[in-house]
Amino acid sequence: MTATHLGGSGPSLREWATGVTVFAAIMLILAGVIDIVRGIAEIADDDIFVTTRNYVFAFDLTAWGWIHLALGVLAFVVSFGLFVAATWARVAGVCIAALVIIANFLSLPYYPVGSIVMIAVSGFIVWALCVMRKDDAGVSVESSAGV
Length: 147
Description:
By secondary structure, the protein is mainly α. It is built from six helices and no strands. It has helices at residues 9-44, 61-82, 87-106, 112-131, 134-137, 141-145.
């Protein structure tokens, strides 16, 4: 069995990969900002969140606030590395998005709707960063110079 490769699919594949990377970067910025705001709200005022009794992963809401704040700052910083398609940013972005998923799953009883939204957004980030191959991400100097 042989595979045929279409000659014209290279630039469109590269544009698609670039679009997915920009999507992931913007979503990571949004996730970071939302986590920063949520972390500040949890640290400053615990009264806006539901407190549940007998929850297995019961932490103080201030502790959850610091966790969400730290993850949000990391996500925000790493997202700027995605705009230049840095490999370290892709790896860090997947790791941070996975940690955001875990943190929001564990704090689900305290902020259910917001946690579900953040889990979905972070899932899209992981998908977008994992679907792109390394050779599709880079734009060569010749193609950017118009040669």
